[in-house]
Amino acid sequence: MGLWQDFVRSYKRQHLVLDIVLVVAAIWLIILMAHYGQLGQATLSALCGSVLVGGVVARVMWSRMDKAKATETTSTALPMTMMGPETTPPKAANNGFDSDFFESLAERMPDPTLVIEQVDTDTERKRMIIYANAEARRLFKLPPGHADLEKTIRQAEVLETINEVFLGGRTRVLSYQATGAVDRFWRATMSPLNRDRSQPVKRVIAVLHDETAAKRNERMRADFLANASHELRTPLASLAGFIETIKGPAREDPDAQMRFLNIMTVQADRMMRLINDLLSLSRVELNEHIPPSNEVDLSTVLQDVLDGLDPIAEERGITIVKPDALPTAPVMGDKNELTQVLQNLVHNAVKYSDDNCTVRVVMEGDVDAEDALTPADAGAPRVSVLTPDVHPGDRYVVFRVFDEGRGVDRQYLPRLCERFYRVEGQKSGDREGTGLGLAIVKHIVNRHRGGFIIESRLDKGSVFSVYFPRHNEEHD
């Protein structure tokens, strides 16, 4: 049935008459030969049938070869809805792909893509975004329909480069940095959409490629080397000195050797903690521009953290007070990173509190932005380390930890989250840390688009608060 349909369709072509003439001529020649006695009746029937079948098959093969040639060249055009009248390709170049196909293709591109049109009026010349794919709409938070280019993209160098493409008609590539809650690095490729270069450019396509990860990776390596070389110099020098002492003056003194070996063990442990914290901080910074996409119940994370820290607190007679029932607290997050945030904050509260004191933890599962920003200790000096963008109707999950430690003087509060910063009086003894814990907390909270507040009264204690956008499936 398929061969017959192809045969019928093929004979609608312009070669119909030629095909019929060739077949009739062949059959006529066979009949003449039979008339003069050169062919028998059986042979005559076989030859006529062969000619007819051969004609059909040949015609079908020619038809399919024509179709194959027509599909050899694929169209690279953008959706027809993106292109102006002067740039619409001939219908034959579409090769069976309609505008929906190309629009679907653009929608699935991983890079944000914009099509910009120049609109001239009697009073002004405006540039409008007439198409944005899914990634572009997410990045710029674009509503359906057209959008003003200058209200969407604020970077002057990007607008200038787009203007050069409209005026010069040539592709331009620009690398730039977009500042915000998290700085991002982009490479923008902007090209005219007209095929006739003699005509003025009416539309431009801009494709943005995110280079943030590569830039952060470069900076991470440089920072790691600089920080490691600076912070490891002291313990390494200490280890080298003790080794020389054990090899020399303390060679015959077992008691001195044991004392020095214990000190060396402490220094080696300090270097291990430092390297682990540096690696952890580097990993967080590398992905800070990418928000997590998994749902996590923060109350479950807190329960796991408290189960692990209770024995440490009990050794010093410290009681960790928590609510009788933790609320459900769904957030979009990375469970390992959120565990690190809560563990660092609760462990710091235990570490910097005096023996036989109380550490109190509080979690609220569904509050508005005003409640999340409300001071936990009214009147205490405070610093807002991170404040996220707040939108109407946003709800938050809040975690606070209260300690009864020495507190921090007002002048030191803004520097608490700096790398390797440690408050005077907390740099010696069993409480010595790497100075990276709060820096790690800050970058993790920032990746989760949350907030971070520190409040402290000298000699009375501190309150550390973090809050994250509550995940509500009904509003997704």
Summarize the model shown.
With 476 residues, the protein is of the alpha+beta class.
Which regions are unreliable across 5 or more consecutive residues at pLDDT < 50? Answer: 68-81, 83-95
Distance between the termini: 51 Å
Provide the gyration radius in Å: 37 Å
> What percent of residues are in strands?
15-25%
Helix/sheet category:
alpha+beta
Query: What is the count of structural domains?
Result: 4
Estimate the mean pLDDT confidence: 80
Tell me about this structure.
- With 476 residues, this protein is an alpha+beta fold.
- It has 4 domains: 2-70, no CATH class; 80-210, Beta-Lactamase (2-Layer Sandwich), CATH 3.30.450.20; 213-290, Helix Hairpins (Orthogonal Bundle), CATH 1.10.287.130; 291-475, Heat Shock Protein 90, CATH 3.30.565.10.
- Helix content is 45%, strand content 19%.
- It has 13 helices and 14 strands.
- The chain has helices spanning 2-10, 16-35, 41-70, 99-107, 134-140, 149-152, 156-168, 212-247, 254-286, 298-315, 335-351, 369-373, 437-447, and strands spanning 113-120, 125-132, 147-148, 172-178, 184-192, 203-210, 295-297, 319-321, 330-332, 358-368, 382-386, 395-402, 451-457, 461-469.
- The strands form 3 sheets. A 6-stranded antiparallel sheet has the order 3-2-1-6-5-4, with helices on both faces.
- Helix 10 (298-315) packs parallel to helix 11 and helix 11 runs antiparallel to helix 13.
- It starts with a helix and ends in a 7-residue tail after the last strand.
